[in-house]
Amino acid sequence: MTLPHPAADQISLPNVLAVLGDPTRLAIVRYLASKEGVPLNCSQFLDLGSKTNLSYHLAKLREAGVTRTEVVGTSRLITLRRDDLNARFPGLLDSVIAAAVDDPALPAVGASEIEVRA
Amino acid sequence: MTLPHPAADQISLPNVLAVLGDPTRLAIVRYLASKEGVPLNCSQFLDLGSKTNLSYHLAKLREAGVTRTEVVGTSRLITLRRDDLNARFPGLLDSVIAAAVDDPALPAVGASEIEVRA
DNA sequence: TCCTTAGTTCAAAAGTTATTGAACAATTGT
DNA sequence: ACAATTGTTCAATAACTTTTGAACTAAGGA
């Protein structure tokens, strides 16, 4: 079973920008970039919203072509579509991620750990 | 008389992305980039929408910090805030513009000229 | 089999954005 | 002073997006 993804050449620039123009989704992308290579499932992002709400945002990212979602058992493993995005919009994802990393206003994944450690 | 603009360090990444994630506004930015140096007033963009609608979109671009609007007589001269955007989000504007230039789905400024010439 | 874990779907509500037309304001040219 | 040009504001509406909770599906482990 596989979920629908747009082909690389179907990825729309305004759509990608609109999808990234939401703080929750930008935080998801920033976290994916920081854990690149590690397979992440949806529950990793529960700091950013409810299960239902994340399902919605993750679907938006997938449908826009920003992420790839692989079904593995009951999990969905989510990765950035770095290569496809880079081929279609060179430099865009990198500059967005670099700017997002420096953005203190974005919600953080793992924010609760700070309290736990304290 | 001057219009309100955000300070460079007040420009928000998600807001910039959201504002650029609209085909009309992306077309405005692409045209501004193609005519950099030339002062453009609002009527240059009438191909993209009604006067009222453009006033709305141009205000969004200004309020997000993407453009600067200078009041000169009854005109508003609009320019890209290239330096401020580049300082805050290095490479972002360039990659967006480069991708927008190649996007055939964006509405074009001056599309009517094609008909006129034909 | 039964329970848990992981995530989706649906419908409703709330909030936001885009588009329109009519009325307005300010400047410029005659 | 008058008219034309440029663009804004306002209120209404239409269209979309986000968020929520309850109900659901599907896989995995006890």
Report the top-level CATH class of chain A.
Mainly Alpha
Largest sheet of chain A: 2 strands, antiparallel
Strand content of chain A: 5-15%
Radius of gyration of chain A: 14 Å
Regions of chain A with pLDDT < 50 over 5+ consecutive residues? 114-118
Biggest interface reads: A-B, 27 and 27 residues
Mean pLDDT of chain A: 93
Which quaternary structure do these chains form?
homodimer
Number of strands of chain A: 2
Distance between the termini of chain A: 43 Å
What is the H/E string of chain A? HHHEEHHH
CATH superfamily of chain A: Winged helix-like DNA-binding domain superfamily/Winged helix DNA-binding domain
Number of domains of chain A: 1
At CATH level 3, the topology of chain A is: Arc Repressor Mutant, subunit A
Helix content of chain A: 40-55%
Protein name (chains A, B): ArsR family transcriptional regulator
Keywords (chains A, B): DNA-binding, Transcription, Transcription regulation
Organism (chains A, B): Mesorhizobium prunaredense
Pfam families (chains A, B): HTH_20
